[in-house]
Design brief:
homodimer, 233 residues, alpha/beta, Cobalt-precorrin-4 Transmethylase, domain 1, Methyltransferase, Cobalt-precorrin-4 Transmethylase, Domain 2, five-stranded parallel β-sheet, five-stranded mixed β-sheet, 7 helices, 29% helix, Uropor_MeTrfase_CS (chains A, B), transferase (chains A, B), 4pyrrole_Mease_sub1 (chains A, B), EC 2.1.1.130 (chains A, B)
Chain lengths: 233, 233
Amino acid sequence: MSGVLYGVGLGPGDPDLMTLRAHRLIAGAQVVAYPSLAGGASFARSIAAGVIAKGAREIVMDVPMTVARGPAQAAYDTGAAQISAALDQGDDVVCLCEGDPFFYGSFMYLFARLADKYRVEVVPGVTSITTCAARAGMPLAARNERLTVLPGPLPEAELRARIDGAESVAIMKVGRHLEKIRAVIGDLGLMERAMYIERASLPDEVVCPLSEAPEKAPYFSMILLTKGADPWL
Amino acid sequence: MSGVLYGVGLGPGDPDLMTLRAHRLIAGAQVVAYPSLAGGASFARSIAAGVIAKGAREIVMDVPMTVARGPAQAAYDTGAAQISAALDQGDDVVCLCEGDPFFYGSFMYLFARLADKYRVEVVPGVTSITTCAARAGMPLAARNERLTVLPGPLPEAELRARIDGAESVAIMKVGRHLEKIRAVIGDLGLMERAMYIERASLPDEVVCPLSEAPEKAPYFSMILLTKGADPWL
C-alpha cells in the first residue's frame, strides 16, 4: 500500500495560527518535505520547527529564483521523485506549505505531479489575507461586498484597471513592486484607505498606513484597500 | 482594568481546522459570545462545542433573518451591551465566529461597536474558500493569477460582468441563488470548469461538478471556477 501525501497549510507564520490538524499531522510525520528558496532557509520549515519530530526524514526542494521556469520545474521534478519513492515504500509524506497550499502555494506543483498516482489530502491553512486584515483592524468584506485579490507583479495598467471600481482589494507579493503600486493607489485617490502590512503575525511584523510604508518591502508584504465597510451600526 | 475582546475564527466547520490559538482561547474562556440565526442553533457554537469549558457563561445574540436591517442591528446592540458589561467587570470575552471574523463574518458588527472602547484581538481562521479548493482538488491561484470573490446574491448582470474575463472566481453564499448563478456560468461557456461544494469539511459535505449539483443549495455552499491553472509541469 502506498503512503498518503498530505499538503499541509501552516498559516501565515505564527506557529499558533497552525490548525489542530496540521499540528497533529506534522508531529506524527516520519517524512516531511518542504521548499527552500535559492539555497536559503525554508520559511515553511521555520513555522513548523517546534513540531517536527526528532528523527523525521526531511526532503528539501531547493527552488532557484530564476525568471526562466526550467530550473524551478527541475527542482519540483526532483522533489516529486523523492516523495514518490517514500510513498511507494508505504510512508506517508507531510508537505509543509506557508499559508494555504492552494492559494499561491508551491504545493500546487507537487499536486500537479502526484495527485493522479497517490492519495493526496490537502489541509487548508489560514491565509495571509485574513491575517493582514485582522492585524490592521480592517474588515475585508461583509454582506454582498466583493473582494479582489491581485498579485503585485501585475503590470501597472492592469493593476490600475482592476483596482479602479473594485470594492475591497488585497494586493499580494508587494516586495519590489511597492513604488509602482503606491503610485497607482495615489493616482486613484485611494491612499487614505490603504494599509501596508509586512510579515503579518511574526515578531517583526509591520502594520501602517500605506502613506507611511517603508521604502523597501520584503516579498511577504501586502496592501489592503477597503471602502471603509459600512459598520452597520 | 477592562477585559479583552477576542474575535476568534473557528474555520469552516471541522473542529480540527481550528487554529491552536483559537483552541486555547476558547478552552480558557470564562465568557463566550456567539450569534444564532433566527432562534435556531448556532453553527459557531457547534464547531466549538467540544472545547468550551464547563461552566463558561454564554452570551447568545439571536439575530433575526429579516430584510430590514433594524431587528438585526438591535440584536447586535444588545449583544454588544452584554459583552461590554462583562469586559467592564474585567472578564475577557471570546466571540466565536465561523470561518474568519473579518471575511463575511458577523464579528464585524461587534468590532464596529466595541473596538474604540476596548482592547480587541482578532484571531484569523481558515476560510471556506481555501477549504472548498482543498476538498475539490482545485488550486485557486498561482504566481500572477487573480482571484475574484463574489457573493451569490449579487444581481445577475453584475455576476455575469464580474465572472466574464476573471481568472479564478469563488462565489460565496450560493443558497437560493444557485439557479441564477448556474445559468450565468452556463451562458459564459464555463460550466466544465465549475465545481459545487456544500458544507465543506463537515460530515455531510457535498463536492461535485456544478453540472451535477443538487436542485437546492444550503446557505453554506460555494461555487469555484478556475481556469484550470497551468500545472507548471
